[in-house]
Each structure stands twice: as C-alpha cells, then as structure tokens.
C-alpha cells in the first residue's frame, strides 16, 4: 500500500503488488503500463506549480481558502449541500460511520469483495463488520441482498460503488429507512457516476470519497471527503476530523481524530475536478473497446464487464474468467499487465477472519476467484489500447 521509493510512487498502489515489474515497465516500450501517474502530472505540471506558489504565498497549510473552496466546488459538482475534506478515504469512512451510527447499535453491514476499506474503518470506529452477499451480475450490494442480511443490531449499511458502478440507490435507501438503519455510500471509485435521480453521494445519510492518486479524481498524495446528508451530520464530521473539538481545545465528541485535507492537495484537486467528466468518458470508451474485443471469446474464458452511460464512472476495467491465472499469464506475455481487485474476501484476510459469516456468500467468493483488472487510466494512449485489444483477441 505504501510506496517504497519515490520511483515506485510514479506507479502508485494499483497494481498493489508494484515492484520490480514496474521498473521494467518504465523502460520496455512494448509493455502497456497498468497505470502511469507521470502522464497526468506532466499534463498538469504548470497548473500544479502555480497552485503550489499560491498556497505558499497564502501562508496557510491546512484549513485555509483552498480547502474551503474545494469543499464548496466538490459539493456543487455533486449536487450536494456540503462536503467535508479529510485526510484519506479510509478516514472518511471511519468518520462517516461514527457520525451516522444510531444509538445502541454496533454492526456495519457491507460487502466483502471491495478491498476491506470498510472493514478497516469499522474496526477503527469501534464497531463490528458483517457481510452480505453481492449481486452476481453487478458485484455490488443490492436492496435484495441487504434485506436478506439485515438484523436488529445493524446500524449502518455501507454500499461500495465498486469499480465505479452506481446501483439502484433509492431502493437501498428505502430499505434502510424502513428499518432505522443509516446508509453510507462509499464513492471512492465512483466520483461522477450519476443517475437521473442523483449523483453518487446524494442517496445516503453520508457518502465518502478517496482522492488517492489513482482515483478518477486523484490528488498528488492522499485525500478524502465526506458528503454529509444533513447539516447535523456535517457538524459531527467536522468536529470528529479535528479532535472532536466543538471549539479550540474543547473536545465535545468522543472518537475524534486528526484528519485534515491539506491546502496543497485541495488546490491540486481544484485543478482536476473540472476534468473528471472527461476522464470518466475516456475510461468508458476504453472499456467499450475491451468489451468488443472479448465479444468473440468463450464467455468463461474472458468476459469484460461493460461500463456504459453516466451511472458508471469506470474506475477499473474488470473482466471475469474461470481460467484467471492462465489468462493473466497470456496477457502478461503479450505485454499487458493485469491485477486483481480484489483477490480475497475481507473475512478470508487474517485481520477480519473473526468476522467470517456462518453461511457462505457464493457470489462474493466467485467474484474474488474470477475478477481481473485490465490497464485503464485516462492518459492511456490509443496505440496502447490497441495492444490490449489484440492481446484479448488472441486469448486461447
Ligand atoms: C472502494 C474504496 N474505498 C475506500 C478506499 C480507501 O481510500 P484511501 O486509500 O484514500 O484511504 C479505497 C481506495 O483505496 C477504495 O477503493
């Protein structure tokens, strides 16, 4: 998760196993990069340097005018009333869960195929994660899978808009409201996804974002935000992100921490926010080419999940295969690196094994066994997309 050196920071965490293979990638022109942050940084270089100078000249490092402006601009983009900057997406989840957990409840229901970020945040918040199965087509929680798993001790449902897909959130919100359960949307992979009835982040009691560099809106470092559903929730999150303070050196809330989005990251994010819709369209267009390339193959060998229309932010290009290892090997030999998001359900990871469900979650397990991710970032060139397309077509 943590960049071991500045060289590897160029490639960031996705693929999470970035090591020597990435160094080869930088010199071997036949290889398509899985991701290359340098391209976006080069594009934005001048604007970033100007923004850096503006921050330095302002004399503010945290909670200054850049941060205030970014909170406003993010909320306006989402069609939300407010947004609260925090240090990371995981912090955003932790603070949102704390802010909306109803009195007397302690369980957070979520999906187990989404990278364990919610499990991490839930445990840090002092609550217990529980897992519902996902829909076998969308690989996300649905109203049906949530209803099947809800019990009286569940206080919060966290729905991850996995890979960028925004499901039928109004239905999910109705299920939660009927039972007095708070809904948190994890929008880390879904900024910009929207349905006619709202943007991702406007359906829950709270929503969370990550601005990790590889995200569709990425900082040059870490960052996150909470979109609160009411002014009261906004106030709680603002207090929780700063030691639980209701005023300086006067903590009102238990469970406060220090989680601020700094001025530089806020300034950089302001440069990129207006670009997100264009980035998302480019991502969708690339995925469409992969879908088309795989359409002639036996579906069990490779099926690429489509990402069509504004309800999909196309964060990752996901394919499924019953022969994943062989397929990854063939693609790798053709110069196309792949990754797996995510290989282990949360409850099969040692840190969360004590929360393993009694009954199996078949769609979750199958997804973790079958999914693989293909190269996808907005700066991927057409000639590189061609290489991926050719490699997909040549699979046997
Ligand atoms: C779905 C999801 N939720 C939460 C996070 C956590 O965000 P961060 O890495 O900023 O803590 C991530 C990203 O890494 C993510 O993909």
Corresponding CATH architecture of the largest domain: 3-Layer(aba) Sandwich
Roughly what fraction of the amino acids lie in strands?
5-15%
Q: Helices and strands: which structural class? A: alpha/beta
Low-confidence runs: 1-10, 12-27
Helical coverage, percent range = 25-40%
Q: Return the average pLDDT rounded to an integer.
A: 93
What is the CATH fold-level name of the largest domain? Aspartate Aminotransferase, domain 2
Radius of gyration: 21 Å
What count of structural domains? 2
Bound molecules: pyridoxal-5'-phosphate
Order of helices and strands: HHHHHEHEHEHEHEEEEEHEEHHEEHHEH
Largest sheet: 7 strands, mixed
Shape: globular
The CATH superfamily of the largest domain is identified as: Type I PLP-dependent aspartate aminotransferase-like (Major domain)
Topology of this protein?
Elements: H1 6-9, H2 20-27, H3 37-43, H4 45-58, H5 65-78, E1 84-86, H6 89-100, E2 107-110, H7 117-125, E3 128-131, H8 143-149, E4 154-160, H9 169-178, E5 182-186, E6 194-195, E7 198-199, E8 206-210, E9 224-228, H10 231-240, E10 245-247, E11 250-251, H11 263-272, H12 276-294, E12 303-304, E13 317-320, H13 324-333, H14 362-370, E14 371-374, H15 382-393
Parallel strand pairs: 2-3, 2-4, 4-5, 5-8
Antiparallel strand pairs: 1-9, 6-7, 8-9, 10-11, 12-13, 13-14
Helix pairs in contact: 4-11, 5-11, 6-7, 6-10, 12-15
Pyridoxal-5'-phosphate is lined by residues 88-90, 114-115, 117, 160, 186, 188-189, 210, 212, 222, 224.
